[in-house]
Automatic annotation (TrEMBL), chains A, B:
Residues 47-369 form the AB hydrolase-1 domain. It comes from the Bacteria. GO terms for cellular component: cytoplasm. It catalyses: L-homoserine + acetyl-CoA = O-acetyl-L-homoserine + CoA. Pfam families: Abhydrolase_1. GO terms for molecular function: homoserine O-acetyltransferase activity. Pathway: Amino-acid biosynthesis; L-methionine biosynthesis via de novo pathway; O-acetyl-L-homoserine from L-homoserine: step 1/1. This is Homoserine O-acetyltransferase. Belongs to the AB hydrolase superfamily. MetX family.
Length: 387, 387
């Protein structure tokens, strides 16, 4: 492994030993988990950092994506000289259960039928994802995590880790996240699910054709139009109103016949924001499985850490031995700062050490994925304590 | 006419004399306008109030809807003893051009073909709607309006009126509205349009079957699934996050087999917010034409009153002789208070008399349609000046 090589990660897939017991009551087997590691576990086994990805993310956190060739989705946070550093940390990032980048999900083969699970795949929860990650860490010989780090849905996992495995986490970094989905969060996801399910090509989930739907390379005829609409709606929630205004405003799209842009008085993408959104929708269907989108949004909507602990969020952390670092962004209206504050209050009530900062950014929820020297400084400082 | 009768309005349709010249460059003919009036024009012709409806509204502002039997959509504002009062005012409310409640729109018959216009209907603007209203007022013998009143898209018309016909408006009431659509506003509408157009039943707009699509009674096979998704997405923007939390929170939907509600670990509408949104989507397709939805959202996205006046909003009002009353709601994130403030600043710059108030409400954008004694007091006081 060379840390100067952009593709310094080791990407692998394991099949977990034994079935996974799910919050929904069933057992899932087999469970494949695709993951990537960076760096080396030290002799004490004390330098492992688990990085958790968001709704549509993958295991390639810091190395080029093997298919698209794009840089890792969080190379700003994870990599040589970054807060999560393969020179110092043994870094693990796994594709979440239910996804479509190599871990078991609705596009995987159901051993009982030899065909993709589709909607016969069991509904999973954030905690189920975390349990699968714990089994992966067992396999890798990681007992206790130096830290678990995540943003957005990754932050939900980072919160769920110390609540589910209080003995196995020394620190949790939770960025631009929440301890439960609000009615508005659920509403946006429901619009997306309905858009997918309204597409006649969805066919009750049975659109895979011959093969598995991993990375969209399924050879079937997926509900691309519905998934694109779902992605467009979701994408609006990732950006701030001010950021959209700054980036696009009411500027018109240039065209060959109208270099300066002009209203078409038709239904073309006249405005740059329309063109951008359409592109976001279309690009997404090439890389993501529609059924996985249903399952993972469902897991996020079901997430309510307080409800899992008798209705009191503080109870989730009473057994925890972890330190916590919370970061929110002032223009994030998907998981706005009060959601982080509520977690901080619960951690205080549970007597858990916690630091919290709200950062300023024009970029809304997406800010956690973008260049943010302050975020990096906060996370770096936090992770170096007790390292 | 009896003002104690809930159905005291007179609903009629006229065909405007001569073609309507459109902002898009073409001429539209014939132009039917369906409207309802309440009260009587006084001898001086000085008591006319034009009420303008929002995106999916209709002319039945204060009387029961002839098909659904539901009360007028703004009976809280318009009616005996209300701020707009048929005892004192001659009230006119017209279905906007491009809609589907009797005024000409894509579901109307194209005289050139004898079939519905569908997407051959010209793209229209808010100003085109206003020009059609002016021709209706000519027909009704109304020269100068005592006031034009509207909320949301109705407020855009109320702003456009004094800008387009400065001699014909003495007062304008603009509630929960804006002088231009932002990138985020356009983005949400574009999601809705893409949802409609992604539905294979949309068929490029030619889904009407035999008859016209007025009120959805078209006998065709409309893109109901896509339109329902569009409505769901839009509906979220009409409500505040706090209002959604108060009304629904994470409460689960009761079912025959689960009276207290429980997670299904499936894709049923487990949460009340899901069930509510699905209902909103389904109910909407029964009453609204999908193509009209495309055309009216397009008109709103094109709306930029400053752009129509050399890039300076104040210029729009320099010839105006009207007084203005602006009302915003603190939890309205579709057209938030700063949008109203921008209008107030432009009116100040133009030397136009303006009063402005931000009201507090938990209900977001929808607040303007709901019970609001303060809003009524403000509008009532404003309309009585100079009456």
């Amino acid at each position: 492994m060379s840390t100067t090589d952009q593709r310094f990660g080791l990407a692998r897939t394991i099949t977990l030993p034994g079935p996974l017991r799910l919050d929904g009551g069933g057992l899932l087997s087999p469970v494949d988990i695709a993951y990537e590691t960076y760096g080396t576990l030290n002799a004490e086994g004390s330098n492992a950092v688990l990085v958790c990805h968001a709704l549509t993310g993958d295991q390639h956190v810091a190395s080029d994506h093997p298919i698209t060739g794009k840089p890792g989705w969080w190379a700003r946070m994870v990599g040589p000289g970054k807060p999560v550093d393969p020179e110092r940390h043994f870094i693990v990032c796994a594709n979440v259960l239910g996804s479509c980048m190599g871990s078991s999900g609705p596009a995987s083969l159901n051993p009982a039928t030899g065909a993709p699970w589709a909607m016969a795949f069991p509904v999973i929860t954030i905690r189920d994802m975390v349990r699968a990650q714990a089994m992966l860490l067992d396999h890798l010989g990681v007992g206790v995590l130096h830290a678990v780090v995540g943003g957005s849905m990754g932050g939900m996992q980072a919160l769920s880790w110390p609540a589910t495995f209080p003995e196995r986490v020394r620190a949790a970094v939770v960025i631009a996240s929440t301890a439960r989905h609000t009615a508005q969060n659920i509403a946006f996801h429901e619009v997306g699910r309905q858009a997918v399910m309204a597409d006649p090509k969805w066919r009750g989930g049975d659109y895979y054709g011959g093969g598995q739907g991993v990375n969209g390379q399924n050879g079937g005829d997926p509900p691309a139009a519905g998934l694109a609409v779902a992605r467009m709606a979701a994408h609006i929630t990732y950006l701030s109103e001010a950021g959209l205004t700054e980036k696009f405003g009411r500027r018109l799209q240039a065209r060959p016949d109208r270099p300066d842009g002009a209203k078409s008085f038709g239904f073309d993408a006249d405005f740059q924001i329309e063109s951008y959104l359409r592109h976001q929708g279309i690009a997404f269907v090439d890389r993501f499985d529609a059924n996985s989108y249903l399952y993972i949004t469902r897991a996020m909507d079901y997430f309510d850490l307080a409800e899992e602990h008798g209705g009191h969020l503080a109870n989730a952390f009473r057994a925890s031995k972890a330190r916590f670092c919370l970061v929110s962004f002032d223009t994030d209206w998907l998981y706005p700062t009060p959601e982080s504050r509520a977690i901080v209050h619960a951690l205080n009530a549970a007597g858990a050490p916690v630091s919290f900062v709200e950062l300023s950014s024009p970029f809304g929820h997406d800010a956690f994925l973008l260049e943010s020297p302050e975020m990096n400084r906060v996370v770096d400082g936090f992770l170096r304590v007790g390292a």
